[in-house]
Amino acid sequence: MLTFAIKRIMQSVVVLFVMSLIVFSMINLIGDPVDMLVNPESLPEEIERVRQDFGLDQPVHIQYWKFLTGAMSGDLGNSFIFGRPALTLIIERFPATLELATFALFIAITVGLPLGIYAGLNPDGWGARIIMGGSVLGISIPTFWLGLMMIIVFSVVLGWLPVSGRGETANFLGIESSIFTLDGLRHLIMPAINLALFKISVVIRLARAGVEEVMALDFIKFARARGLSSQRIVRSHLLPNILIPIITVLAIEFGTLIAFATVTESVFAWPGLGKLVIDAIVNLDRPIVVAYLLFVVTLFLVLNLIVDIIYAALDPRVRLQGDVL
Amino acid sequence: MKKIQANPVIKENNGKFTKAILKNLKQPATLVSGVLLLLIALCAIFAPLIAPTNPYDLAIVSIMDGRLAPGERMFDGTIAWLGTDGAGRDVLSAIIYGLRTSLTVALCSALIALTIGLLVGMTAAFFGGRVDAFLMRIVDIQLSFPAILVALVLLAVLGKGIDKVIIALAIVQWAIYARTVRASAIVERRKEYIEAANCLGLSSFRIIWKHLLPNSISPLIVLATLQTAHSISIEATLSFLGVGVPITEPSLGSLIANGFDYILSGAYWITFFPGIMLLATVAAINIFGDHLRVLLNPRLSK
Q1: Contact assignment for A140 to B256 by CB distance below 8 Å
Q2: How many CB pairs under 8 A join A and B?
Q3: Which of A107, A129, B101, B196 is deepest in the core (most CB within 10 A)?
Q4: Shortest CB distance from A152 goes to which of B146, B233, B268?
């Protein structure tokens, strides 16, 4: 078990290193950031000075080496636009994104799971058809467009909810979050539902598939034969068996929620990571883009690693299989 | 037992496929989505003939017609059924042209990704061993990152433009094709007719191309359908974020982005209608693909 974990961690480190190389060399192909930073009328000497200040006059491999040694000590360079450490900016913005993604995941589970289980238990009923039809719609509907429509309906026409931004935050048990204030919740609810919608559909599908699979198994038949009530069967025999795969999938999906938050944050002007990186891409703010990518890649690798290790702990077959490369 | 003729397998598969579609069409959801798809495709192909005006002809577009509500009459007398945008373009015409861009991008990228995926997947399945392990490791790593993120990074590097979006979407998608091709080809490879072909001394290329490929194609068709819907969505999202197709040749996504600036002033139609078109297209493909999957999978269709 320990060897498996160590092997996977080593693999993740290699992937991270390769990613940093790919990301860094690709980012260097984007136009010259100096053009964006200086006044177009400035003298050639000034432009040269800016270039030297940012270390952009050196060869690419030296820039990469500097970046790599810096990265080891947590320094990913200063943002060209904000003039502050990129990693600090990322870490400052992360709580807002984390809050949005967590709340969205919470919505996805509380809404999706009951609907999916219902559809799985009554596969031929009208309810199930409507739920499954709704889930196709949920997967097909473009997130950003739905966000705009929500703004039109709830903010412009009905005037119930604020259009954009993050509301007041409050500190509770050491966690600074907007779910503890009414204003914060009013700002959070629309982006969170918007982000959750796709995941609700995913949870519905997973739950339904799980229910259909488990309900056909022998131990359910035995439970029935023992005369247990349907409620009891669902609660103590069905649920524990379908939850494990759903939770594993959701752990990985949490990473995609953070990635997709880019879109939702752009629509609702939510001051999170996604907004930061989109602005950075448009402004050619290289250090931010690189820092964001490494941050997200690390996040993904950690999530995948945790899931893999849990899997291996639960299922010995995985440990024996994973010997390639 | 399969015989090794020139092309026995293709025929067999085509029959299965047509039958599946015909059987499928009897269900109302599939029929509706199929017809809708056909209409959408026709609209996109014959855009210049169908659209009431040419939204890119600067001689016709007039700022005087800016932000007309749906059904109002434009300056030159034509009725703007779905309203006009801020620059005075007819929204209906823009949607029809935008659909064309969206579909072109999705189909071209699907084709490139499919080709790469086929090559990689077949290579992995046919040679096995280290080649297989290495290729599939790359696929795994790529698939562990969400498509939208990979596409965003690629476009940040490549810059704007239809060709660049197509390249980015192809790179995003090849891995999933490669994995599917490999999975179904590995199952086929163990069957006797491949062994027989090997004994006859056919070349690897010929075995892969003429025998392995046609037999592992049906899951690929389903995947390609669903992936096309997915890539239409991603392209729209990218264009909305401002890193996709340029505004000079807008797709449905850039039309929606264009309307973003007007929603607070109540001009909902500039974002609403292109979005409905996008939703209809993606949903129709998804529903059609879903049914296709059920029918082509012997394990699911009893």
Answers
A1: no
A2: 111
A3: B101
A4: B268
CA A289/CA A90 separation, integer angstroms? 10
Confidence of residue A38 (pLDDT cuts 50, 70, 90): low
- B263–A contact, CB cutoff 8 A: yes
Angstroms from A217 CA to nearest CA on chain B: 17
Would you call B246 an interface residue with chain A, using a CB distance cutoff of 8 Å? no
Question: What's the rounded mean pLDDT across residues A243-267?
Answer: 81
Q: Tell me, yes or no, if B9 comes closer than 8 A to chain A by beta carbon.
A: no
Q: Is the pLDDT of residue B34 over 50?
A: yes
Query: What pLDDT, in 10s, does the model give residues B163-216?
Result: 889 999 999 899 999 988 888 888 777 777 777 887 887 777 777 777 777 777
- List chain B residues with CB under 8 Å of A151: 263
Task: For chain A, report the end-to-end CA distance as a whole number of angstroms.
Answer: 17
Given pLDDT bands bounded at 50, 70 and 90, which one contains residue A231? confident
Torsion sign across C-alpha atoms A147, A149, A151, A155? negative
Question: Residues A255-266: pLDDT tens digits?
Answer: 888 888 888 888
pTM, two decimals, is 0.79
Tell me the ipTM for this assembly. 0.75
Q: Give CA separation, B124 vs A226, A323, B138, B141, B182, in Å.
A: 50, 17, 12, 16, 6
CB contact A283 to B (< 8 Å): no
- The whole-angstrom separation of Cα A280 and Cα B161 is 19
Could you give the angle at which helices A286-314 and A86-121 cross, rounded to 10 degrees?
Answer: 40
Q: CB-based contacts of A185: which residues, under 8 Å, 6+ apart?
A: A167, A178, A179
Cα–Cα distance, B177 to A32 (Å, whole number):
35
- Sign, CA dihedral A13-A18-A21-A25, equals negative
Look-up of token digits 């290790």: A309
Answer whether A149 sits within 8 Å of B279, measured CB to CB: no
Q: Do strands A175-177 and B79-80 pair parallel, antiparallel, or not at all (unpaired)?
A: unpaired
CA dihedral A35, A36, A42, A47 (to 10 degrees): -50
The answer to whether the CB atoms of B275 and A259 lie below 8 A apart is no
CA distances (Å), A209 to each of A119, A246, A254, B26, B185, in order? 9, 10, 20, 25, 26
Q: Give the pLDDT confidence of B118-175 residue by residue, as tens digits.
A: 889 888 887 878 888 888 888 887 887 788 888 888 887 777 788 889 999 999 899 9
What are the chain A neighbours of B154 within 8 Å (beta carbons)?
26
**Contact at CB, A300 and B153, closer than 8 angstroms:** no
Question: What is the reported pLDDT for A322?
Answer: 47
Nearest to B260 among A23, A30, A148 (CB): A148
Nearest residue, CB atoms, A156 vs list B229, B237, B263 = B263
DSSP string computed for B224-254: HHHHHHHHHHHHHHHHHHTSSS-TTS--HHH
For B128, name the nearest residue in chain A, comparing CA atoms only: A324
